[in-house]
Fold this sequence. Notes:
The complex is a heterodimer of chains A (206) and B (418).
Chain A: H1 3-10, H2 14-26, H3 31-50, H4 56-73, E1 88-93, H5 101-112, E2 116-119, H6 126-136, E3 140-144, H7 151-163, E4 170-174, H8 180-186, E5 190-192, H9 195-205
Parallel strand pairs in A: 1-2, 1-3, 3-4, 4-5
Helix pairs in contact in A: 1-2, 1-3, 2-4, 3-4, 5-9, 6-7
Chain B: H1 9-22, E1 33-35, H2 39-44, H3 48-53, H4 55-69, E2 73-75, H5 82-87, E3 92-95, E4 98-99, E5 106-107, H6 118-123, H7 125-137, H8 150-153, H9 169-201, E6 213-214, H10 218-238, H11 240-265, E7 269-274, H12 284-304, E8 308-313, H13 321-324, E9 333-336, H14 341-348, E10 353-358, H15 360-365, H16 368-381, E11 388-392, H17 402-415
Parallel strand pairs in B: 1-2, 3-4, 6-7, 7-8, 8-9, 9-10, 10-11
Antiparallel strand pairs in B: 3-5
Helix pairs in contact in B: 10-11, 10-12, 11-12, 16-17
Amino acid sequence: MSQELIDAITEMREDDVVAITNQLLDQGVAPTDILMSCKQAMDVIGKRFEEGDAFIPELILAGEMMTSVTDILKPRMAEEATSDKLGKIVIGTVQGDIHDIAKDIVAFMLDLNGFDVTDLGVDVPPEKFVQTVQETGATIVGLSGFLTLAFDPMKDTVTAFKAAGLDDVKIMIGGGQIDENIRQYTGADAYGRDAMAAVDLAKGWV
Amino acid sequence: MADEFIPSPEFLARAQRIQDAFELRQPDRIPLIMGFGYFLADYGGITRQELHDNWEKSQEILEKATLQFQPDTAFGAWGTPEQSKALGDRMTKWPGYRLGPQASFQFDEHEFMKAEDYDALLHDPSDYAIRTYLPRAFSELEGLALLPNLGMSLYGYYSLGNTLSLLAPPVIAAFEALKKAAEVTAVFTGQQVESAMRMAALGFPGPSFLVGALIEAPFDFMSDTLRGMRGIMLDMLRIPDKLLAAEDMVLKTQVDYAISFCRATGFKNAFIPLHRGSDGFMSLAQFEKFYWPQLKSMILQLVEAGITPTMYYEGVWTERLKYLKELPKGKTAGLFQDTDIFEVKEAVGDTLCIMGGMPIPLLKNGTPEAIRQHTERVCEEVGKDGGFIMTSSVLELEGISPENLQAWADATHEFGVY
């Protein structure tokens, strides 16, 4: 573990992150060890986000730094390191709605917390959610929607899972206007107000 | 109009009610404003696309709904897709334009301005807008990129040779598209004026808080229009000084625009929808550096110029209510989306006119009885001593049942009497 790399990431010094990564490689440190340090640093940032000490700018820049590091490491890695995942989740913004900001943050935090996340993007029709769950064997689905117009497609998606006989799949919903009223309306299993609520719900379901 | 408009007692009473609430007085009863939006399409049995395309029909439906629910002010779907169609707009989607006939209007945010463009924007914002930004944001304006640098290219006789560039076919096409946009805007504006006159004749004043300069907080302008959410968040950490310099420029430009717009039109209002200032996007330290000082300065300058700004505090502003107390008393209004409306009253009830009170999710899924009970509590607690206008948390009522709207309107009429 490189404390120097961890500090550089958590202190948002992105130039240093690249320099230190290259240095470590030159010193013969294994790429998997460097990735361990990255994970450690991301845990710190995730914790700060949970506690209200870091916000979206830090989360996005952290994501950028991770991309830079993995770009450097990729050619040096024999094969992708596979680690045990907590569970599989399919996530997307429902049909008719093209808002992605909140959905991206939820996907990012779920990934950071050890879930295998399949992100279907925006304007996703109910059948696509069902089909992807069938293909991946995911046990949890996250539906995002910002507009009032998203309530009905959310309901339709929940209904589509029931119709496909996938009653065991747990469905959570979230987005600007989502509350208990809309959870009831859509028939979803739960709703969350923010990314951490989504993580807590998912952890409770695996 | 040949005949002079003589306002009815109902029109005058409604207008007075809203005016009183704006100025923190207690009216005869709590005013109710309904932004029907795409609700009108379902209510009138037409598609959302037709609601935009068939003005006469949508006006009839608006009048029918207004007469049924009896708000003090009502309006239908926001804006028109016609300008976007004329210009090949890449930043919006409308039913019938980049969306199906039953979809709803949405912004389609992109990083039209790159991080490396800050110097160009700051050096000459007009040149940047015309030759770089517009060709990226509007497909029909791509030809403008062929123009020579605008700074000095048409300054007097020595530079008249540059007029040659105006003959390039893509440039001509861009000017044709702008002309088309101007024409459809003229048609739309005419429809809006006619709609206002027809509503006034029925006794309903227009939504004056919306009719005026539409501007954005400097941070939101940089985010929504130019850099996009991802870009702006990175700029805060990577190039904070450039972002702050750009915000200062945007602040000055928007205030100048709003004041000259109001002078030219006689309107006295500005509407400022707020996006990234909500709790959750940035820390309070970042808010105090990148968001609030610029927004506050904008608000104070508008108030100084005799303009009443209405801010739409989108999202949740619980942690930020303390800043709103710094605003001049009785000079602004705030429409609150998801901030607890009772906390809002407690914190800023004596500072600004509060709008909101009815959450869309309750209207969507609540029983008429639950809606009635909530309305009663809002009227009693948030309406106390005036300075309050009842609206839904989002000024868009699509997907809400007429029964629930009726329950809300009836309860507001019943419990809103002072």
